[in-house]
Task: structure prediction
Amino acid sequence: MDEAPAGEATAGVSEAAPASEAAAPAREPRWLDAEQLQAWRAFSAMMVILSAELDAQMQRREGLNEFEYNVMAGLSEAPGRTVRISQLAAATNGSLSRLSHLISRLEARGWARREPNAEDRRYTNAILTDAGYAKLAGAAPQQLEIVRDLVIDVLTPDELRQLGQVSQLLIDRVQARP
Result:
């Protein structure tokens, strides 16, 4: 592989493109400099490590993973604790299949139920049951403690504001893509 220009890093690229791609007009990659590479690697590691830690602690403390907690929280905040499963999938960035399987697991625990949408029977609603709401209400203090310990209490108010702004900027960028 050709080396990245002096002072620039490759972000982990270690092999040349296959011969079939070699015929395409070559455009020089915009290599990351050392500072950009360090920031990217730290951010990438933070996403993986923080997500795994939130999941593990919630599972250990409450028997819920972070995705289950977020879906139940989304249901709890909706009028009548009811949301179309397709809308819930979009709101939680989960596939319809993943949400359907999750709702089945929550139904088995008595924490949710589904019923046809009254306005359009082609759709199915997920409803958080009273038992599910009680489970969520019991888990909320633990989730809050974990989030405070891992993120909120580690940052100054200015850093927290910056984190929110940068996070929203990146979310908007990704969501604006076709």
